[in-house]
């Protein structure tokens, strides 16, 4: 690095201040960028061509300028989180404003160029260096659940390693994603002269996604979304990094700290109204502590539905499968709605501040096997910890995404970790702890489970290159 982080932040702050003083971003008075509207295009070929040229500029730029670009994205997300979070909620109409804003603040902690370290081996036969090279232009698909945060996270990871990206956002979150791209590109250009480090389709469709999947100018895909788009990416004739679906279970055994378990389940499952792919979706609690755990949930901000109310909510949330043995059909109008809204739909008035609904079900209730994304969590009784782990394994469906346990028995914890084999495994905390939110480790909005990369970081989007000098350059 040619400049300190403090110096880079100072430059970025000055540029952002100047741009804000000129009337902000995306206003009618702003002059459109010569290559699209500051990275926003209506044609895949044009978006790829602009990102290709942007990647050439990036490779010829200094590492200092690359670091400035990353810092600009972090600061825009952090300092403009209130405005951008509100824009996202107004457009998508799912989730919670406070968590939309918090997710944008979290972008400042996404890892960047600190991951880009050359590895070396020195011996009798000379010196060998392993460096991490970019793929080029990456095609990215982003979800409606975290539209701008996922885009910003991908930007930092991908640009840190020398790539640029072309984004096909979910149509339900395309406006805020495009607004973010305009702000990023304009500020980066003002600070560094670099152009189109990210481009985006203004009117994304399944057809534009397919064009990106099959475009000869895109050697790598990164897809974050549901089962359909994950399957499409895995069928593409190029390498794909796929953040696919999950249905994270929680096991609570008789040794658990039940207040901590209840508090953790509510923190995780209520986050952005349970839109997180890592969020607690169903709980398997041993019978001996079941009733006590249900009481603890009520003490920490949950509201328990009785069996009749659970049946009413289930009937609203799901329709019967279209074919025998198929999946129940999720009512997407309920996704991401507040707990009070869901309760009101079945005639229940909940106390102010209620974050999560919960209730007892059996495993036949579709809330258990289906990855519903709403603030209701089903609780299922199990005989013992082994039975709970068995059910967790069954209803996680082999996605190997995320699982959680609340237990003080190290043998039970170890057994579940081995049996579940999930990418993220959290013990005695909320799901977010796996991504540095209350636990150790770095964050990402793309958890690549089907393709095995796990929590993505800048190295995820690199090619390993080795340079070997034979017989020389070892100076010891």
Which descriptors apply to this entry?
alpha/beta; Acetald_propionald_DH-rel; 476 residues; 6-stranded parallel β-sheet; Ald_DH_C; globular; single chain
Model description:
The radius of gyration is 24 Å and the shape is globular. It contains 15 helices and 20 strands. It has 476 residues and is an alpha/beta fold. Strands 11-14-15-10-9-16-17 form a seven-stranded parallel sheet, sandwiched between helices. The protein has a six-stranded parallel sheet with strand order 1-6-5-4-7-8, with helices on both faces. A three-stranded antiparallel sheet has the order 2-3-20, with no helix packed on it. Mean pLDDT is 92; it is low at 21-34. Helix 14 runs parallel beside helix 15 (410-420). It folds into two domains: 40-244 and 457-465, 3-Layer(aba) Sandwich (Aldehyde Dehydrogenase, Chain A, domain 1); 249-438, Aldehyde Dehydrogenase, Chain A, domain 2. Keywords: NAD, Oxidoreductase. It comes from Gimesia aquarii. Residues 43-297 form the Aldehyde dehydrogenase domain. GO terms for molecular function: acetaldehyde dehydrogenase (acetylating) activity. This is Succinate-semialdehyde dehydrogenase (Acetylating).
Please render the helix and strand layout as text.
Layout: H1 5-21, E1 40-41, H2 44-60, H3 63-79, H4 81-92, H5 97-105, E2 119-123, E3 126-134, E4 137-142, H6 147-160, E5 164-169, H7 174-192, E6 198-201, H8 206-214, E7 220-224, H9 227-234, E8 239-243, E9 249-252, H10 258-269, E10 282-286, H11 287-299, E11 302-304, H12 307-317, E12 318-319, E13 329-330, H13 339-345, E14 356-360, E15 376-382, H14 385-396, E16 402-406, H15 410-420, E17 424-427, E18 447-448, E19 454-455, E20 462-470
Parallel strand pairs: 1-6, 4-5, 4-7, 5-6, 7-8, 9-10, 9-16, 10-15, 11-14, 14-15, 16-17
Antiparallel strand pairs: 2-3, 3-20, 12-13, 18-19
Helix pairs in contact: 1-3, 3-6, 3-7, 4-5, 4-7, 6-7, 10-11, 14-15
InterPro entries: Acetald_propionald_DH-rel, Ald_DH/histidinol_DH, Ald_DH_C, Ald_DH_N, Aldehyde_DH_dom
Keywords: NAD, Oxidoreductase
Enzyme class: oxidoreductase
